[in-house]
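FYVE-type domain-containing protein
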Amino acid sequence: MLQLCEDALAPLEGLQGRVDAAEAEAQRAAAEVEQERSRVRRLESRLAKAAEAVQGLESRLRKWLKAGPQDAEQREEKPPPSTGSLEQSVESCGELMTRLESVKPPVTMPSTSRGEQWEPDSSQCSLCSVHLGKRHLRPRHHCRFCGRCVCGKCSKSSIASDHTVQRCCTRCVQPVVQSHTLWRRLTRVAEALAAPTGAGAPWQGFDQVLRHCEEVCGLPPLRTEPTSCGP
C-alpha cells in the first residue's frame, strides 16, 4: 500500500515542478508586458510633443510667409490646435518649407570661417575666370562672406564685420554695403568729421573714403586680416 502511494506521488511532484516553472514564466511575461506598455506610453508622450512642435512650426511658417519675418516675430501667438495627424502636419510643413526656400532672405553680415565654407583654392577666379598664380603673381583670395576664390581685382573691397576688416568680393559688396555695420561706421565718422560726401567729393571707393575720414579723425584702425590666401 505504501509503495502504491509513493508511485502515485512521484508524477505529482514532477507536475508541481512544471507548474512552478509555468508560474515563473508567466511572471516574466507579465513583467515584459508591463515594460512594453511603459515604453509605448513614453513613445506616445514623445509623439504628442513632436506633433505639437510640428504644429507650432507650421503656424510660424504660415505667419512668416504671410506677414514677413520681422512682423511675424512681433505678433507671434500660440498656435491653434490642429485636428490633423502628425503625418499631415509634417507634409504641410514640407510644403511651407518649399515656399520658404523661394523667399529671398534678408541681407546678413556673417563672415565665413576658413575650412568650413570657403571654396578650395582654384587656378581661376570664380567671377572673371582669370588665371590665378602664386602669391605675388595674381594671388588668389577668398571672400569672407561667400567664400568664393577670386582674384585681387574682384575683391578690392573690405567690409567691417565683428570688429575686423574682412575682404569682400564685388558680388557681395553691393548688398553688404547697406548693412548695419557699415552704416554705423559711416555714422561714427560723420559725427566726428564734417567730410564732404556730395557729388564733388573725391570718391575712390566707399571703403577708401571711410579709411581717409578715420585717419583724419584720429580714430584707431580696425584690425585687418591677411589679404593673401594663396598656397
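thats it. The first helix runs from residue 2 to 67. Residues 55 and 81 are 8 Å apart (CA to CA). bye
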